[in-house]
Amino acid sequence: MAGRRKLIVANWKMHKNRLEAAEFVLRITHAENIVLCPPFTALDTVRQALAGKATKLGAQDCHAATHGAFTGDISAQMLKDAGCTYVIVGHSERRSQHQETSEAVRKKAAAAHKAGLIAILCVGETEKERKEGSFTRVVEEQLLHSLPEGASSMNTILAYEPVWAIGTGNTATTADITQMHDFIARLMKNHFPGWGAPAYALYGGSVKAANAAEILAIPTVGGVLVGSASLDAAEFSAIAGAAE
Ligand code: PGA
To answer: Which of 9, 124, 139, 197 is disulfide-compatible with 35, CB 3.0–4.6 A?
Structure first.
């Protein structure tokens, strides 16, 4: 990602109806390094509102299959058809609330690639794993098992999201973030020679306007994945502004 602007991704999770989504698009500044990931029901509204703007559209999850009898699921092809450029896979809320294993995440990332989407692939340890000191091993295992064949810096963006920092207000320290991002960059260099560029992962976990500049200043951080603070247009614009 060297030379590219740092990526600012809004993960709205299960928030915002179509009106709120359209209003949000009107209130933020737009740039090609900004990605909005609304719930499925607001994808088309956001797509229309983004017409002529540089900001990109993303989804929060996809199914591994292209089509079939999968009630309630959405395929990567459907997301591509809906105007998405990106899709988040392996978010910790999917891993913990929907029992998604790294193997399942790998299939989703492969499906995203097949559909021509860029997968934003999330990894991160729990509080228990951090306290036990096994956090780098956990992230290593997740990366080795979640990355599909053919993954490269062109079709995949890694995101380090420590579970204990998500939605808690407990942002990881600059030292914690630097340590893990350096670890990820080394791991990718050693295990994925075809990656094609230094692996500058995104950081996610209680990113807000007040801490975005400090986090984005870390050289190995390629951008931020923002949950709660992405719901407010002014707050999100301030975070995006910190990437300038
Ligand atoms: P948060 O969520 O910013 O609310 O901590 C981040 C995420 O889950 O991607």
So the answer is: 9
Q: Choose which residue among 157, 163, 206 to substitute to test ligand 1 binding: the one with the highest number of ligand atoms within 8 A of its C-beta.
A: 206
For ligand 1, is residue 207 a contact (CB within 6 Å)? yes
91 annotated active-site: yes
Please give the DSSP secondary-structure letter assigned to residue 63.
B
- DSSP readout, 103-169? HHHHHHHHHHHHTTPEEEEEE---HHHHHHT-HHHHHHHHHHHHPPTT--TTTEEEEE--GGGTTTS
pLDDT (tens place) for every residue of the chain, 244 residues total: 445 689 999 999 999 999 999 999 999 999 999 999 999 999 999 999 999 999 999 999 999 999 999 999 999 999 999 999 999 999 999 999 999 999 999 999 999 999 999 999 999 999 999 999 999 999 999 999 999 999 999 999 999 999 999 999 898 999 999 999 999 999 999 999 889 888 899 999 999 999 999 999 999 999 999 999 999 999 999 999 999 8
